[in-house]
Amino acid sequence: MAQKKTRPTTSSSRPRLGTWLALALLVILLDQLTKVLIVGRFAHGEGIVVTEWFNLVRVHNTGAAFSFLAQASGWQRWFFIGLGLAASALFLWMLHQHAGQRLFCFSVAMLLGGAIGNVVDRIWHGYVVDFLQFHGAWLAPLFPGGYFPAFNLADSAITAGAIGLILDELRRVRRS
């Protein structure tokens, strides 16, 4: 019976740290580009209806996810900048330690790009620019008026990264 030959993993066939940093940079650039376009097109609070369930709007979030701490007196800006920078340092270390683990590093790179994208906003504007808004009657039981809180590409990358980490861990548990 012939044995199945497997190709040895070489350093050239594995993604390197630079690959993951390039992905994070791409997320940051796309996030900032879309925010510049929104800020240039809409005044704060303005928006347009794109479909019956989706709007482009310009809102400012001084808080975190779902406007957590948005009503605080201003200290939250520096807290979230510090938190984002600390998380980014941890993400860089994680990428360095595990550069060959594709799903894990893809997820961490998405988290890194999203975190830095929102930190740039907080440093530059004092708030995060959000602009993607989904709505519908099916959201009404959870969100006032059926409007999911507006978000941006950095938030989407953070969500994709979190989902990826969960999938990676499920896959790891299943293998063991």
Describe this structure in words.
This protein has one domain. Helix 1 runs parallel beside helix 3 and helix 3 packs antiparallel against helix 4. It has four helices and three strands; from the N terminus they run αββααβα. With 176 residues, it is mainly alpha-helical. The longest helix has 25 residues.
What is the subunit arrangement here? single chain
Strand content range: 5-15%
Q: Given the C-alpha coordinates, what overall shape results?
A: globular
Helix content: 40-55%
Number of strands: 3
User: Major β-sheet, in short?
Assistant: 3 strands, antiparallel
Major sheet strand order: 1-2-3
Spell the H/E element sequence: HEEHHEH
Q: What integer value in Å does the Rg equal? A: 19 Å
Low-confidence runs: 6-10
The overall average pLDDT, rounded, is: 88
How many individual domains?
1
Structural class: mainly alpha
Number of helices: 4
Distance between the termini: 28 Å
Q: Could you provide a short overview of the structure?
A:
The protein has 176 residues and is mainly alpha-helical.
Provide key terms for this protein.
mainly alpha; about 180 residues; 4 helices; 3 strands; globular; single chain; about 55% helix
What is the topology?
Blueprint: H1 17-41, E1 47-51, E2 54-61, H2 75-97, H3 102-124, E3 128-134, H4 153-175
Helix pairs in contact: 1-3, 2-3, 3-4
